[in-house]
Amino acid sequence: MNADDAAQRGVEQRVTTLLVGDSIAFTIARAMPEVAHRHPVVAHHGTMIGCGIARGGPLRDAGLVINVPAECSGWPEVWGRCVDEFRPDITAVLVGRWEVVDRIHDGRWMHVGQPDYDAYLRSELQRGVDVLTSGGGRVALLSAPYSRQRAPGGGDWPQNDPARTDRFNQLLGEVAQDAPSVVTIDAAEWICPGGEYAAEVDGLAMRREDGIHLTPEGSAWVADRLLGELVRVVRSPDG
């Protein structure tokens, strides 16, 4: 085998990964270039700041009623273009921030944990899985971490309720349960070990002051673990 053949074989052995999701996913994607060299991967992303998989609105965020950016409704098309362009072996999905807020759906305010809204979220997750597996790759649904977005005076917002995030993460498991090409990865445990919100993890500053997003150091730490897990899933017979 000559040097060119060996180089080409090395490229072929790399796992092509794709990360899609909201702004939390974006912070992780932005950190991937600094850790990707540790793994046999070619890493891409198609994250959309301010957009989850729940569509429509308006919604309530931090006590305000806000309209959803128009581009958020087009996430299936964005994800589909990423699949066509990058042909990932596996796509990681990290959403949840915009799925646990109160939102107008079918003409009334709803939130995760209510049967009708749960059914809607489940259908949107399945839509995402269908899009992302259309090129033959696998999907890893990442559990969403808790947030602690503080209200004035030290109060709390409904989207901070751990029960909402827990229910959303249960929906991820339900979607993955009967889909051989889909796995779940408990990324929330990395960010919120022991099922508790944590500003620091093992002495590392994990969350920004907004109580939602990851710090640059936390993003790199999560990106490193995530790429390792994605390679493991693709290369493991049991997935």
Overview of the structural elements:
It is a single chain. With 239 residues, the chain is an alpha/beta fold. α2 crosses α7 (216-235), α3 packs parallel to α4 and α4 (115-132) crosses α5. Helix content is 39%, strand content 18%.
Quickly describe the structure:
This protein is α/β, with parallel strands linked by helices and 239 residues long.
What is the molecular shape?
globular
How many alpha or pi helices? 7
Helix content: 25-40%
- Terminal Cα separation, in Å? 31 Å
Enumerate the spans where pLDDT stays under 50 for 5 or more consecutive residues: 1-10
Give the C-alpha Rg. Answer: 18 Å
**Content-based structural category:** alpha/beta
Indicate the mean pLDDT.
93
The counted number of beta strands is: 11
Secondary-structure element order, as H and E?
Answer: HEHEEEHEEEHEHEHEEH
Main beta sheet strand tally, sense and closure: 5 strands, parallel
Hey, roughly how much beta strand do the residues contain? 15-25%
Write out the strand line-up for the largest beta sheet, numbering strands in chain order: 2-1-5-8-9
List the helices and strands and how they pair.
Blueprint lengths: L2 H10 L2 E7 L1 H13 L5 E5 L13 E3 L2 E3 L8 H12 L3 E5 L8 E3 L2 E3 L4 H18 L5 E5 L19 H16 L4 E4 L1 H5 L8 E2 L2 E2 L10 H20 L4
Parallel strand pairs: 1-2, 1-5, 5-8, 8-9
Antiparallel strand pairs: 3-4, 6-7, 10-11
